[in-house]
Write a structure and sequence with these properties.
heterotrimer, A mainly alpha (120), B alpha+beta (152), C alpha+beta (703), B: 152 residues, alpha+beta, Ubiquitin-like (UB roll), DNA polymerase, domain 1, C: 703 residues, Aldehyde Oxidoreductase, domain 4, 7-stranded mixed beta sheet, 22% strand, globular
């Protein structure tokens, strides 16, 4: 089962890897996320803070209680994995508490570009 | 002491700042329209608006509410019913009804950002709100009806 | 919902028409007539009409449906109808098995006749009183819109004005029911009475009950079934913020606090150990292996046998065999388990959402010696029930907690993790089918071996005839001349509770999948095979034919879509479903489900529709990816993260047709569940050629 999810993850991720996200569009989208996620380091809400999330080890924010695959993973978030997660969180990371998602990979790529642009 | 705006009025709460907002609302403020469902932000029954965003209040510590505007189902509409509530009544959505206040809060937040939601929008915004009775077909219909009512 | 401790029909007349005026318990099956019309209706001098209903409202809509029946027959003004529930179980509120419980899809089908009768009696008494007042013959009067009306004179006397005079009249022994043409409130979609309060947040669920000076209780229970408290150090948490008291209860402790969050923090921190038990090593794979082995067990008493099985198998053109299995399931009602109690030594008042009023009464008597006359149960709305909220554990905890803090009211709330992990699950079951087919595709013989726990053990008398395990097999819908059924009972040390549609929840899947296998073996279309093997007069036919029409079964399926069909009778209703699936890689998607139901006359068609839709969603979520499993005696699942029931993004379009065949009333809350898993897996077979013989689909990498 785990292997299957990993496979599915790659299939979803592959075609969007090359996509260039638009940070400005991503900033607009972030409104949908800001209830649960802060951009400042150390500020956790219903979700962990997103400062420096691109390139961060999955499930690694201090003081945040992760569930399911997120807690077990030793991988690092990159564009592809974030896009896969943002568009289908429960499939990419079974057991996650994140349930709301973005409609399209394009939106996800824009959001990731925005998060990346914040540095960290 | 934590100060915030609750349904339009300023409030001060003396409590452990780690206490989830949900329990402050229900037990201290007597606002029981916001429900306890899972305690980990996975079911949406406790959805309230924090500065206009739909959030699971069971996973928001009181400290996060400091200085924020919090809106619960009781304060969703100043006088009368919110268009989302009107649509919910028109479509006769609830069965057990326990999740419905959360569904309504999530829908209202969605419509503030997406005034004309498609099925895909509804899926993406309302996937956080479980309905164990399975009235999803009516929720979908009511969310669209609410969008219509909001426009008129 | 209002709280009532005393009620009268017609002011000042409790002695003649009070609800609880019959103190003896009638033989259960004979409680088809209320002891007095006031059992279900009370009219106030202020013209208020209050329906007193024996069934809790947990979403199934019976408060509205029962009120429709009562208001229509009485001639009440629908706009002013009020609802309440009795605070003590009594004969007027008990089901045929002698208990006040909200189970078995009985809400409408059982209460319809006694309620109509009571309302007709009351109407006739009001008319009689009106006739005296106006000095006209009773047959010139009618009851309409909350008044007794003389159409020719243009006069209308509100019910309230006649209350006192009517109370003094004898209760008609043979009330005349309204003719069909006057039945204008039932048989049509009426909005639910509870919608508005559930949309504004004003509805008071059990969880929302708030009493002066109320404290809160969080629980810490033994993680292994059969285990109890070994040692507890209450002092380990006494100093924690808000902690009032630590109370040992059966299988655990309740920490009482000034807020639930504080109580919960302390319950988690409590220094408590639990006894070792022989279940400590219990694992689901071992349990399933034991059940599977019982499929081969010899010397099992035959539950049902007809015809000549050996002869029929010997003469069969082909024999088909298959084993099926289902896992345990949790109910995960949206409202976690809770109960509020205010209890002293000789008086107990509860505020709770329960499906099991008499069960709580009996449980409190058994555990704590609380007698029926000491007990008041105020029923609030239930945030879902599904068969889970019929038990007494949380009531015992709340009563013990309240007594421990000097009678202060205590609301005990289980965390979601407690709800998921503390059992009362749908049973895990396995089955073995062996069937003989004739040359032309008729089922000539079927041998059925069930294996697994016997949920209804307490009521089983002979031959393991347990409806909680075997309904759907005892009364298999198909015309099978040579048939035998037995049940190799394998007790499991896990507390079980009926799960919406009980035995049909798995037997519907078992039978309808195997029938599909037989159709395939016979080289026949699944619908044609079913129709050929159903009795000529079966009520399964009209719903099958209707659902086939809805899904255009005889036409080609849309591109990429595969379809499966099934039909199941339960609670005297028939439901047929066609499930449409598409494959997304190896993943099964379900864009659309068609359903046709024959539940007799649909009292509220809109509610029938939404119940069937909800049943489909529930059954689909269960079939796709949830199960309860044990490891080391502990439940592995914890919350919605690892017990992922269906969310809106996977909810199919669900079209529901109501087929009225003139049949007697059937249930509505449950019958939509049983056909789904079979139709789903039959569609998966059509799509992939893979026969899914165990649930959930996620275990097969399909969801």
């Amino acid at each position: 089962m785990k292997r299957y999810f990993a496979l599915c993850f790659l299939m979803v991720a592959a075609p969007v890897y090359a996509q260039e996200g638009d940070p400005a569009a991503g900033e607009q989208l972030f409104g949908q996320c800001s209830g649960c996620h802060m951009l400042e380091e150390g500020q956790n809400r219903a979700g962990p803070h997103l400062f420096g999330v691109v390139g961060r080890e999955i499930g690694s924010v201090e003081g945040f209680r992760y569930t399911g695959t997120l807690a077990d993973s030793t991988e690092v978030w990159d564009e592809a994995s974030l896009i896969a997660y943002l568009t289908a969180p429960r499939e990419a990371m079974p057991g996650t508490r994140k349930t709301v998602f973005l409609r399209s990979e394009e939106d996800a790529a824009n959001l990731v570009a925005y998060l990346r642009s914040l540095g960290g | 002491m934590t100060d915030f705006t609750l349904n339009g009025s300023g409030v001060s709460v003396e409590a452990d700042p780690d206490t989830p907002l949900l329990w402050i609302l229900r037990e201290r403020m007597g606002l029981t329209g916001t429900k306890f469902g899972c305690g980990i932000g996975a079911c949406g029954a406790c959805t309230v608006h924090l500065d206009g965003q739909a959030v699971p209040s069971c996973s928001i510590p009181l400290s996060v509410a400091e200085g924020a505007e919090v809106t619960t189902i009781e304060g969703l509409s100043e006088g009368g019913l919110h268009p989302v509530q009107e649509a919910w009544i028109e479509i006769d959505v609830p069965q057990c009804g326990y999740c419905q206040t959360g569904q309504i809060m999530a829908t209202a937040a969605m419509l503030a950002q997406v005034p004309e939601p498609t099925d895909e929008d509804i899926d993406s915004y309302l996937a956080g709100n479980i309905c164990r009775c399975g009235v999803y077909p009516r929720i979908r219909a009511a969310a669209k009806r609410a969008a219509e009512l909001s426009r008129t | 919902m209002t709280q009532t401790t005393r009620r009268t029909f017609l002011a000042g007349s409790a002695a003649t028409l009070g609800v609880l005026s019959v103190p003896i318990r009638l033989p259960a099956q004979e409680v088809t007539q209320p002891s007095a019309p006031g059992a279900y209706l009370r009219i106030g001098a202020d013209n208020s009409v209050t329906c007193i209903l024996p069934t809790c409202e947990m979403g199934q809509g019976t408060h509205t449906g029962q009120a429709q029946i009562l208001a229509e027959e009485l001639g009440a003004d629908w706009q002013t109808i009020r609802i309440e529930m009795p605070v003590q179980p009594g004969p007027d509120y008990r089901l045929p098995f002698g208990q006040m419980r909200s189970v078995g899809s009985y809400g409408i089908r059982h209460w319809h006749d006694p309620m109509r009768r009571a309302a007709a009696q009351m109407r006739m008494m009001l008319i009689e009183a009106g006739a005296s007042r106006l000095g006209v013959p009773a047959d010139e009067l009618s009851a309409v819109g909350g008044a007794i009306v003389h159409a020719a004179y243009g006069q209308a006397i509100p019910f309230g004005e006649l209350v006192e005079a009517a109370s003094a009249l004898p209760v008609p022994a043979d009330p005349v029911l309204r003719p069909e043409e006057e039945r204008t409130l039932t048989g049509r979609t009426v909005p639910r009475l509870d919608t508005r309060v559930k949309v504004t947040g004003e509805a008071v669920f059990s969880m929302d009950v708030t009493l002066p000076d109320m404290a809160y209780g969080a629980v810490r229970m033994a993680p292994v079934f059969g285990s109890d408290v070994a040692a507890m150090n209450a002092d380990s948490v006494r100093g924690m913020p808000g902690v009032i008291e630590v109370v040992q209860v059966p299988r655990g402790a309740v920490v009482v606090g000034e807020s639930w969050w504080q109580a919960k923090q302390a319950a988690d921190a409590l220094d408590i150990t639990f006894t070792e038990t022989e279940n400590d090593g219990l694992d689901t794979p071992a349990m399933e292996a034991e059940i599977q082995a019982a499929l081969d067990r010899a010397d099992v008493p035959m539950t049902l046998e007809r015809g000549d099985l050996d002869g029929a198998f010997a003469g069969a053109a082909q024999v088909v065999e298959a084993d099926y299995a289902v896992p345990m399931l949790a109910h995960v009602c949206m409202e976690p388990i809770n109960c509020t109690a205010q209890a002293t030594d000789d008086r107990v008042e509860l505020w709770t959402g329960t499906q099991g009023h008499d069960w709580i009464r009996m449980g409190l008597e058994r555990a704590l010696g609380v007698t029926a006359d000491q007990l008041i149960i105020n029923t609030a709305y239930l945030g879902g029930g599904f068969g889970r909220k019929t038990w007494e554990n949380e009531a015992i905890q709340a009563v013990m907690a309240s007594r421990a803090v000097g009678g202060r009211p205590v609301k005990v709330i289980w965390a979601r993790e407690d709800d998921v992990q503390q059992g009362l699950y749908r049973q895990t079951m396995q089955i073995r089918f062996r069937a003989g087919l004739s040359e032309d595709g008729r089922i000539t013989a079927m041998r059925v071996r069930m294996a697994g726990p016997q949920m209804g053990a307490a009521i089983v008398r002979d031959n393991n005839m347990d409806p909680f395990s075997l309904l759907g097999l005892i009364n298999i819908a198909y015309d099978i001349p040579n048939y035998a059924l037995d049940h190799a009972v394998v007790p499991i040390p896990v507390p079980l509770s009926p799960w919406r549609s009980i035995a049909e929840s798995f037997n519907g899947y078992f039978v309808e999948s195997f029938i599909d296998e037989l159709a395939d073996a016979a080289g026949q279309d699944p619908l044609a095979f079913r129709l050929a093997n159903l009795p000529a007069e079966s009520r399964a036919r009209p719903v099958l034919e209707r659902v086939a029409e809805m899904a255009d079964w005889s036409g080609a399926a849309p591109e990429g879509v595969s379809r499966g069909i099934s039909v199941v009778e339960s609670y005297n209703s028939y439901v047929a479903q066609v499930v449409e699936v598409t494959m997304e890689g190896e993943r099964v998607r379900v864009p659309r489900v068609h359903a046709a139901i024959d539940c007799g006359r649909a009292i509220n068609p809109g509610q029938v529709e939404t119940q069937v839709q909800g049943s489909v969603i529930e059954a689909l979520g269960a079939a796709l990816r949830v199960k309860i499993s044990l490891a080391g005696g502990r439940t592995e699942q914890t919350n919605f993260t690892d017990y992922p029931i269906l969310r809106i993004d996977e909810a199919p379009q669900i079209d529901v047709a109501i087929v009225e065949t003139g049949a007697p009333l059937g249930g509505v809350g449950e019958p939509g569940v049983p056909p789904l898993a079979g139709a789903l897996c039959n569609a998966v077979f059509a799509a992939t050629g893979q026969r899914i013989r165990s649930l959930p689909l996620a275990d097969h990498g399909l969801a």
